[in-house]
Structures are given as C-alpha cells and as structure tokens.
Known about the structure:
alpha/beta
Amino acid sequence: MRPPRRDTLGHVPTLSDVRRALDELYPPAWAESWDAVGLVCGDPDEEVSRVLFAVDPVQAVVDEAVAFGAQLVVTHHPLYLRGTTTVAADTFKGKVVHTLVRHGIGLIVAHTNADHADPGVSDALAEAVGLRITGPLIPDPTDPAGRRGTGRIGELPEAEPLSAFAARVAAGLPATAQGVRAAGDPDRPVRRVAVCGGSGDSFFAEVRAAGVDAYVTADLRHHPASEAREHADIALVDAAHWATEWPWLRSAESALLAVASQHGWDLETRVSTHVTDPWTAHAPMSFAPPTA
C-alpha cells in the first residue's frame, strides 16, 4: 500500500471546510437528478486531519478508515442511492452508518457530479490508458468552455492493433478478476478512442457520432453490445466497473491536497487499494475465434 500523502502546513480543517472544498471541485448541482451526492453523515464542526478515498462505501472500506484513523471517507458511489427506511445495524448499510458514527467518521459522496467535472472520472480513465484528451464525449451545454460533460474522447500517440490496445487498458487499470475483454477484429487499428468510467452502454449513439475507433467502458451487456457492433465497426473494450473509476481517486486526492496547500491545512490522505469489485474469481475457457 502506498503511504499516506500529507500536507503539514498549519491548522486542521473542519468537515465543513473539506466539504466546501469538495463541493467546489465537484459541485452537487452537476449531479444527475436521480443521484444522491454530498454529505451522508458526519458533524460539520468536527476536525478532519485524515481522509480516505475509495470507490465503494462498503464495510471493508469503513474498517480501513477506522484503522487509518480517518475522520472522513470520500467515495464515488453513494451509500443510499435509492433511499431507505432503516439504518439498523443488522443491515449491511446500517452497519456501515453505525461504524462511521461510532468512530466519528464522516462520509461524502461525489458520483455523477465527479463524472461531469473537469477533470473528472473519465479524464482519469483516459490518462490511465495513455490517451491525450481532446474533449468530452457528451459536452455539458452549461459549460461555455466545452470541457465538462460525460465521457471523454482521446487519441493515442499512434495507431495500434486492438489486441495491443486491450493489453494497454489491462496494464493501465488496477487488476480485477474480470480482467479486460474486447469485441472486434484483434488486428483492427485503434487510435481515436472514447472512454466512459463506469456503466457506459447507454451512450453508443454518441460514441458512433464521435467517429472513434474504440470505446472503453464497463458493464457492457450482451444486447446493447451486440447491437452496437452491428451498427458500426467500433471496437469495444469492457473492463470492471470498479477498475474504470478507481483512477479518479488519485485525481480527487491530488485536487483536495492542492486546496489544503492553498489554505494551510494539516491534512493527511490515502487512496484505498482494497478491491471492492464484487467479482473475485475468473475461470478462463479455451477459446479460438472462428475462422472464415
């Protein structure tokens, strides 16, 4: 595990201070209407000297925060996306809440507001696989600069076969049991690429309109992927959901530490390397693509 990053310039911020900084980096107003972002639990007046960043607000992450001595956990995924009627500790989400409160740890979520930010989740994904970003896949019409939006479009330094590009994606992302799978001719040249961290199979029309050679995302289902391949000769590269969003944690950590430096905060941070992707095993099958 990489050691925590620390800025030891001065005073310790409060949860309210850190919340304000994160809200400026990833404004809640940028989130989708169905999303649940922002402060989930925590006392805004309590001091925060240690922050843990993670993709999922699951018990293993909360236990890591306790061991780290964190006063705040920042996750990408919401704890209660669809609401609840109970936080009883005999439910797994209730246990998370009880553990956080018992140890004086706050929870802040930056989900689709971080997806739409500049830089955001897809920027980090694009950079992790070696792309030079040229713009958003779906621009945010409220951004006059045209930099914010969903997904990103980028280019490789030079074209390479799909097989090599899929290997590049696998090398650039944290390892998971799923690995990386690709759809398309392995020898097909790839240079211009669209990416979308997390589930991205609802954006195939925009991907086709972007004129890309390949699309990197996660959670590709059979029918949308099959239909996308029939519509156009665009290679598909499918990685684990968790893996495509994890690179953003480093970006968010660096952004918060930059704010800490500006304000003279004494703040220590850590990015969780605990793999919270739900799939834990992969059994390879002998497979040879059909020949003509």
